[in-house]
Specification:
By secondary structure, the protein is of the alpha+beta class. The protein is built from 19 helices and 23 strands. The strands form 8 sheets. The chain has a 5-stranded mixed sheet, covered by helices on one side. A 4-stranded mixed sheet has the order 17-23-22-20, with helices on one face. A 3-stranded mixed sheet has the order 7-8-9.
């Protein structure tokens, strides 16, 4: 044959140039997949594997449909089966299997689904199974795939299987609790349910604590379903002495700071005037504000959360916590009239940048600015020693509950906190032990960081606009940019197809960018981790966040796929060692210190996936106001946030590059953002190409 009649495209794809023949000669590409084997008696043989045109991609995985059909026909009540990839109304590709009964009675769909689930991975289990009365055939007797009926997608669903054993129930409850779900079934995948590499550390910590085991985040990636991780837990020989439960108890005369607070205390005492670790919040309130109810509500919240009324005096034995009685707190909510947006901005910047000395003053201040009779701005500034990003949701909830109750003339009816932050600080010190004890958990983590970061270059040399000042300031600015919904979806598919998360894909792309900008092949970025493993900490206002260092080897000849595998391994290792505070890691690694740049890393990557804080107050409309003074804790910091549509599908990502204005200009950083998006595009289009071949420059840059 010379081709297919009147089908030029199909002819071009099947009748291809013969590399072994003469000019113009063709070979026919059959679509059959075969492999070479050696006969037992000697000599090669071609073994038939399947059809390349009967493959589909499901949740990022390449699926050979014939494998599913083979499993289905092993069922005694199924004579014939064929599986297709169908497009659901959501736009996703789902697996639909069509089966012909064998004559021994109609097969039960749920039973057949369980039969398939026992033999193939979760992504190969059909979304629905259609039972046929007869097979549609072509005139020459072949299966007419186009004539197979379209399934009723309204009944396409995953069969929920409840947990049986105690271990399975523990794992399922932890999945549901961390992800905010009503329940999780045996076959539910943590990452398909919305988990990510950062929330994975929380769920593993809870399961380990409940079961007294020592599994790591890596095991969750390898066995991400409830059933799979429960089996890992039951088989684990890494039994550990169960940590003492985090409970309220008697306190010594001197309550130490937590490890995270210790670092914030040192930073504050180095420069009490620096606003770098101030957390400003400003809310514009439209309507009839009950000032007395608001004042009482803040009193309720301060009483509920001890860090908001704690000072941290120093001594020869180090700093400690002193929780003040509520009646010693003075919350200033006396309205101050301001005229115009410029004056409002001046007041907010002044409030946000005012110094804290946590030795002697509580780490919270408030102000109420009156714009008009029915318009106020409520401003609140917290020092990082008392709160972190994950504290904002419980803080907003408690202010809302307390104000609603007080505006109706009654105190809030909440249950008391099961533990306070001081209880956590004492518990943390007991469970992690001392770094002078070589057998303590904190010593083991420090040993990991010494090994991992040994010999790392002192500085990542980015193309700066100015020489570094001898003493870096905290002055910063931000360049926002966006990642579209189509690219977001491709990135999610790429992550799933390589057993990774979107964070890991973004980390790999950022590593490519930094390698191309600096010429370095050994580089590191920092990333914050929540540090809230125990369920008792979910509703607490306090400082738990830590920073870990992710070291990456970026070789130009390596493919993006290979780099993702390396990044996955790096990130999983780091996320299993997050309890030792960053300043202790710096001390242990002991890099060359400089006042001109941050130690260990100069670039930060942050995924903003904390619970959104919502504030709804009776009789008031609430809007968030930009209250911040932009600060930079390092040269460059990339912030990413996912958006989803009403079906939960990727709907684009909000992104920004923050930067230190000491050394970089907005135009330069805008170029970094453009290059980062080009790398993401190239990675999703051709993940197997060498990263050194990725074009990071735009047309104008290439012209120059």
């Amino acid at each position: 044959a010379r081709g297919y009649r009147n089908r030029i495209g199909l002819t071009a794809s099947r009748f291809v140039a013969d590399p072994f023949g003469g000019a113009g000669e063709r070979m026919y590409r059959t679509g059959d997949v075969v492999r070479w084997r050696e006969r037992a008696e000697g000599g090669p043989v071609l073994e038939y594997v399947g059809r390349s045109d009967f493959q589909v991609k499901i949740r990022g995985f390449r699926v050979e449909l014939g494998e599913i059909d083979a499993v289905l026909t092993q069922h005694p009540r199924i004579a014939f089966a064929v599986t297709l990839g169908r497009t659901a109304p959501s736009g996703d590709t789902v697996l639909v299997s069509y089966v012909l009964p064998s004559g021994d009675g109609e097969p039960d769909v749920a039973e057949v689904t369980d039969h398939v689930r026992g033999s193939v991975p979760a992504h190969m289990v059909p979304a629905t199974i259609v039972i046929l009365d007869e097979l549609p055939l072509t005139p020459v007797g072949k299966l007419d795939r186009q004539a197979l009926p379209t399934p009723d997608f309204a009944v396409v669903r995953t069969v929920f299987r409840a947990s049986d054993s105690g271990t399975e129930r523990t794992v399922a409850d932890a999945f549901a609790e961390v992800l905010g779900l009503d329940r999780a079934g045996l076959d539910d995948n943590f990452f398909d349910l919305g988990g990510n590499s950062l929330s994975a550390t929380r769920v593993v910590a809870r399961i380990n604590s409940a079961l007294g085991i020592g599994l790591g985040v890596r095991e969750l990636f390898e066995a991400p379903t409830v059933a799979g991780f429960a089996a890992r837990a039951d088989a684990s020989d890494r039994r550990i002495a169960a940590r003492a439960a985090l409970t309220a108890g008697p306190r010594p005369d001197r309550v130490p700071l937590s490890l995270a607070q210790q670092r914030m205390w040192i930073v504050n005492q180095v420069d009490t005037a620096s606003p770098a670790y101030n957390i400003p919040i400003a809310l514009r309130l439209f309507g009839d504000l009950d000032i007395e109810a608001m004042r009482a509500a803040f009193g309720d919240v301060v009483e509920r959360h001890e860090p908001l009324r704690t000072v941290y005096p120093g001594s020869a034995d180090g700093p400690h916590q002193v929780v003040l009685p509520v009646d010693q707190m003075t919350l200033d909510l006396t309205p101050v009239t301001v005229s115009g947006e410029a004056a409002l901005r001046t007041e907010l910047v002044s409030l946000a940048s005012a110094e804290f000395n946590v030795r002697s003053e509580v780490p919270m201040r408030t102000a109420l600015l009156r714009i008009g009779p029915d318009e106020h701005v409520l401003a609140l500034v917290l020092h990082h020693i008392a709160a972190d990003g994950s504290s904002m949701a419980p803080l907003a909830r408690d202010v809302m509950i307390a104000y609603t109750a007080r505006s109706h003339g009654r105190p809030p009816g909440w249950a008391p906190m099961p533990v306070q932050y001081a209880d956590f600080a004492l518990w943390q010190r007991r469970t992690l032990g001392r770094d002078t004890d070589p057998d303590s958990p904190i010593s083991a983590q420090l040993d990991y960081w010494r090994r991992t970061l040994d010999g790392m270059p002192e500085l990542l040399e980015l193309p700066l606009d100015r020489r570094r000042p001898l003493q870096r300031s905290s002055h910063g600015a931000t360049v926002p940019f966006a990642i579209g919904a189509d690219l977001h979806r491709k990135l999610s598919d790429l992550a799933r197809s390589h057993d990774s998360t979107l964070f890991m894909v973004a980390h790999a792309a950022l590593a490519v960018l930094l390698g191309r900008l600096s010429g370095a092949t050994d580089l590191a970025v920092g990333t914050p981790v929540a540090g809230r493993g125990d369920a008792a900490l979910d509703e607490m206002v306090g400082m738990f966040v830590n920073t870990v260092v992710l070291r990456t080897e970026v070789a130009p000849e390596r493919s993006f796929t290979d780099l993702m595998a390396h990044v996955r391994d790096t990130d999983l290792g780091a996320f299993g060692q997050t309890e030792v505070p960053f300043d202790r890691v710096v001390q242990a690694v002991d890099p060359v210190r400089s006042t001109a740049h941050a130690p260990l890393f100069q670039v930060l990557l942050e995924f903003q996936n904390t619970e959104e804080s919502r504030l709804e107050l009776p009789g008031l409309t609430v809007e968030v106001v930009d209250a911040g003074v932009e600060v930079a804790k390092c040269d460059l910091f990339l912030t990413l946030s996912e958006n989803v549509d009403e079906t939960g599908a990727p709907a684009g990502m909000s992104a920004s590059f923050g930067f230190a204005t000491d050394v970089l200009d907005a135009g330069t950083v805008r170029g970094f953002a453009d290059q980062f998006v080009r790398i993401l595009d190239a990675a999703t289009a051709s993940p197997d190409r060498p990263i050194g071949d990725i074009d990071v420059l735009g047309a104008q840059e290439l012209d120059r």
